[in-house]
């Protein structure tokens, strides 16, 4: 197990290097002008001399390879550089926002996993029943619904039509403090939508896994011995049915990240994802590279987690085979 | 692995994520009181540091300038005791500072702070985008603790108006990089309000500064909520989440019957115009440009596109300013447009588009995508031009795409600076700035206009300046480098809980600094 983790971490380094290099290359090739992005509306009234000076100060004209190298060497020493679009050090941007993104994703993920398990088990109990058909078809339609569309729909319904939940932000508009109660109320919609977007695949996998397990000999034997339905379902079927799902949990991290990107943008949630969008359109190299590295690391960790869980939970798998 | 272990793991995970939420002892107060206000704006500043251009035109709530402007845009003393003493040759401006002013951290304001502010902005290493506005300054020096002396390179009549820009505390700003230092996000100033929190992209909150030299403001708490989408802003205003907001005219009209809210329409210098580049063989032709000027129905644009919230623009300066040249107002005159084109040899072709020497009277007009007001202007302009036999092909694009094409294609542009005609006109029309960044986008070049601009800039005699700007506006009729269409009003809706509200004449940028909240610190709650 430790060996597996160690080996994976060794692999992570070159992957992260390539990714950051890629970010710099793509940003350099993008049509966005970092100077214009930096100056904002002021650029539309600025003279050539000012724009040239900014170009010089921001080091825009240096080849991207040397900019990447400068960034990398500084980053390895712990200096992530300055974000031009936020006018703050990159570490500060991430520090202020990471906690909110983590909270959003964690809440959404936990909700999705719990709800998905319950729905999946209910549907698997009697394949072909009305409940099964409803759950399955709902899952398929949800799978096809774009996240931003769901978000807008939820805002329209919950905030505009019924006025039961706030439409966006982290706290009430008029309040200055971040309080537990406010965050709780404000997180319901974004986390709910994010959970909803993760729900379908999870439900369907659980349904499939549990359904298959229910048809297996041990389960049939247990039923024949007169073991209670509850024990059969939770003790036998769910255990072996959840195995394939567990391995998937980690590999779903990328989807969670892209989902969060859209959800945070629509709900003006002050997290990392919203900053990523700004950094990308403003060609803010240091911030973009740091955030991409962060996202890549999250994906790699997710995959590692999936494999570790698989090895722990499934007696048929040996770590040294992986 | 047993079910129990799975359960434990799940519970642990739930606990771990649950405690990640931070909480602070809060006071969740409700809106509706007159001592707090929540305002919805469309955009937020990139930075709150005056060193990078924040508040350069005054009205920053956290900082003060040496001077400020009143409701009629007249200069009045702020951090300075009085208006500056100007030497006879117009080259030195001396300001004496007000006594007893302190920054919100308790440090007193001295002339060193003023000198530091201006010198940092003038430093080439500082990424200030509007540094060229201070181009006239040769040096700034302190004369004792309470006097500041500006020496200019050339006489610059409207210089005093530039000194509304905010003064920063040297003791805080000196040790940090002006481009990325903490002053950008945690400003400390002398102004009536102190920033309490800034959640970027969401809102900024301010509280009254009890030690403000002008007296503690009655409105104790201010929130500026950043809401990009017009419809969402209107909805949140309707739901009571906001007390006031910037709105487009058609959405503001939906609040007309709401007795608890008042609508404010601020007149502006903010024009919409079509640039007619000299580099394009069609738009460079003076007959075409004069015909277009005669063919557009300005009043129609104000009525239909702006819902009446605006005024026809007969030139760069709005009709209700003292600088406006009376007598240049003109109606749409299609027969005049036809006559001009006929006289110049532009003959109508089979499809109604005029042709001269084998060249069709046709050009492309670009507008920045997503800006509905500009799109409507562009389409109306194209349809008016067609009536005179000129084809205008309207296209939308991002600024990245527009910029390289500005020298050949027309652009639906919007500009406007308040304070002095020199501020907006010089960059718009002077031939020395042709094609310089976004200045003089049309590459307009007219010796009469150049001379008038120089006179207006150098002379300190108001009558001489007025005559120069009159001449400039009349010359623009004979040789229109731009087709000026409308000056658009900025519309605000605000809960009716205070007395003492007015609006200033506003520049192109608006919402954050201008609006009925330009003088928030003097609002009085209604009894």
Ordered list of secondary-structure elements with their pairings:
The complex is a heterodimer of chains A (322) and B (527).
Chain A: H1 2-29, H2 34-39, H3 48-58, H4 64-76, E1 82-83, E2 88-89, H5 90-125, H6 130-144, H7 147-161, H8 180-214, H9 217-224, H10 229-251, H11 253-266, H12 272-281, H13 285-313
Antiparallel strand pairs in A: 1-2
Chain B: H1 3-18, E1 36-41, E2 67-69, E3 75-77, E4 85-86, E5 92-96, H2 111-122, E6 137-142, E7 147-152, H3 159-162, H4 170-173, E8 193-199, E9 203-208, E10 221-226, H5 230-238, E11 244-247, H6 249-252, E12 261-266, E13 271-275, H7 286-295, H8 298-304, E14 310-312, H9 334-343, E15 347-348, E16 354-356, E17 359-360, E18 362-368, H10 372-387, E19 391-397, H11 399-405, E20 410-415, H12 421-429, H13 447-458, H14 462-478, E21 482-488, E22 490-495, E23 498-499, E24 524-525
Parallel strand pairs in B: 1-10, 1-11, 18-19, 18-20
Antiparallel strand pairs in B: 2-3, 4-5, 5-7, 6-7, 8-9, 9-10, 11-22, 12-22, 13-20, 13-21, 14-21, 15-16, 16-17, 23-24
How does this model look, in words?
The complex is a heterodimer of chains A (322) and B (527). Chain A has 322 residues and is an all-alpha fold. Chain A has 13 helices and two strands; from the N terminus they run ααααββααααααααα. Helix content of chain B is 26%, strand content 21%. Chain B has a seven-stranded mixed beta sheet. In chain B, strands 14-21-13-20-18-19 form a six-stranded mixed beta sheet. In chain B, 51% of the residues are buried. By secondary structure, chain B is α+β, with helices and mostly antiparallel strands. Chain B is globular and about 75 Å long. The model of chain B is unreliable at 1-31 (pLDDT under 50).
């Amino acid at each position: 197990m430790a060996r597996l983790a160690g080996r994976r971490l060794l692999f992570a380094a070159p992957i992260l290097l390539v990714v950051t290099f890629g970010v710099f290359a793509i940003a350099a090739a993008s049509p966005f002008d970092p100077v214009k992005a930096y100056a904002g509306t002021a650029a539309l009234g600025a003279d050539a001399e000012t724009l040239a000076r900014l170009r010089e100060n921001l080091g825009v004209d240096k080849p991207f390879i040397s900019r990447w190298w400068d960034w990398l060497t500084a980053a390895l020493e712990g200096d992530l550089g300055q974000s031009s679009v936020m006018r703050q050090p990159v570490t500060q941007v991430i520090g202020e926002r990471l906690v909110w993104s983590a909270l959003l994703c964690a809440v959404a993920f936990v909700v999705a996993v719990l709800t998905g398990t319950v729905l999946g088990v209910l549907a698997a109990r009697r394949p072909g029943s009305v409940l099964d058909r409803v759950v399955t078809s709902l899952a398929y339609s949800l799978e096809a619904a774009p996240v931003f569309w769901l978000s807008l729909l939820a805002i329209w319904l919950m905030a505009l039509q019924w006025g039961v939940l706030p439409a966006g932000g982290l706290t009430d508009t008029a309040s200055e403090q971040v309080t537990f109660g406010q965050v709780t109320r404000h997180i319901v919609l974004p986390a709910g939508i994010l959970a909803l977007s993760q729900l379908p695949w999870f439900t369907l996998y659980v349904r499939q896994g549990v359904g298959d397990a229910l048809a297996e000999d041990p389960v049939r034997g247990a039923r024949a011995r007169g073991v209670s339905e509850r024990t059969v379902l939770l003790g036998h079927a769910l255990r072996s049915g959840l195995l394939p799902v567990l391995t998937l949990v980690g590999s779903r991290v990328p989807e969670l990240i892209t989902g969060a990107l859209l959800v945070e943008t629509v709900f003006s949630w002050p997290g990392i994802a919203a900053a990523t969008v700004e950094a990308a359109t403003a060609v803010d190299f240091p911030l973009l590279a740091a955030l991409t590295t962060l996202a890549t690391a999250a994906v790699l960790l997710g995959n590692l987690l999936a494999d570790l869980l698989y090895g722990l939970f499934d007696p048929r798998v040996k770590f040294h085979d992986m | 692995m047993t079910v129990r272990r799975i359960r434990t793991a799940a519970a642990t995970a739930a606990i771990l994520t649950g405690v990640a939420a931070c909480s602070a002892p809060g006071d969740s107060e409700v809106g509706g009181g007159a001592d707090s206000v929540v305002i919805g704006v469309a955009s937020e500043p990139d930075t709150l540091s005056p060193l990078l251009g924040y508040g350069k035109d005054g009205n920053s709530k956290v900082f003060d300038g040496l001077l400020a402007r009143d409701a009629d845009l007249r200069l009045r003393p702020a951090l300075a005791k009085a208006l500056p003493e100007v030497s006879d040759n117009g080259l030195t401006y001396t300001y004496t500072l007000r006594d007893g002013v302190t920054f919100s951290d308790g440090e007193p304001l001295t002339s060193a702070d003023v000198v530091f502010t201006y010198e940092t902005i003038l430093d080439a290493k500082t990424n200030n985008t509007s540094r060229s506005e201070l181009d006239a300054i040769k040096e700034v020096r302190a004369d004792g603790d309470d006097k500041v002396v500006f020496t200019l390179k050339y006489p610059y009549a409207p210089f005093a108006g530039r000194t509304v820009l905010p003064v920063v505390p040297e003791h805080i700003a000196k040790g940090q990089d002006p481009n990325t230092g903490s002053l950008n996000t945690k400003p400390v100033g002398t102004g009536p309000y102190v920033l309490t929190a800034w959640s970027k992209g969401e809102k900024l909150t301010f509280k009254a500064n009890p030690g403000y030299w002008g007296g503690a403001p009655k409105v104790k708490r201010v929130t500026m909520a950043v809401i990009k989408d017009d419809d969402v802003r209107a909805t949140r205003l309707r739901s009571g989440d906001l007390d006031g907001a910037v709105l487009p005219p058609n959405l503001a009209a939906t609040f007309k019957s709401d007795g608890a809210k008042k609508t404010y329409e601020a007149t502006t210098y903010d024009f919409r115009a079509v640039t007619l580049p000299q580099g394009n063989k069609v738009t460079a032709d003076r007959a075409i440009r004069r015909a277009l000027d005669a063919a557009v129905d300005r009043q129609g644009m104000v009525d239909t596109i702006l819902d009446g919230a605006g005024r026809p623009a007969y030139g760069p300066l709005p009709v209700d300013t003292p600088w406006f040249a009376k007598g240049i107002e003109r109606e749409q005159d299609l027969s005049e447009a036809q006559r001009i084109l006929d006289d110049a040899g532009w003959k109508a072709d089979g499809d109604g588009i005029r042709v001269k020497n084998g060249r069709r009277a046709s050009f492309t007009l670009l507008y920045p995508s997503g800006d509905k007001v500009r799109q409507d202007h562009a389409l109306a302009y194209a349809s008016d031009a067609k009536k005179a036999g000129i084809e205008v092909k309207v296209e939308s694009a991002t600024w990245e795409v527009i910029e390289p094409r500005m020298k050949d294609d027309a652009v639906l542009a919007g500009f406007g600076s308040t304070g002095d005609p020199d501020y907006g006109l010089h960059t718009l029309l002077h031939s020395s700035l042709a094609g310089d960044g976004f200045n003089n986008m049309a590459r307009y070049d007219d010796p009469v206009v150049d001379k008038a601009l120089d006179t207006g800039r150098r002379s300190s005699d108001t009558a001489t300046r007025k005559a120069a700007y009159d001449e400039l506006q009349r010359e623009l009729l004979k040789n229109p480098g731009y087709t000026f269409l409308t000056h658009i009003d900025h519309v605000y809706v605000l809960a009716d809980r205070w007395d003492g509200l007015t609006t200033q004449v506003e520049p192109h940028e608006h919402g954050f600094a201008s609006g009925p909240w330009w003088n928030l610190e003097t609002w009085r709650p209604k009894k």
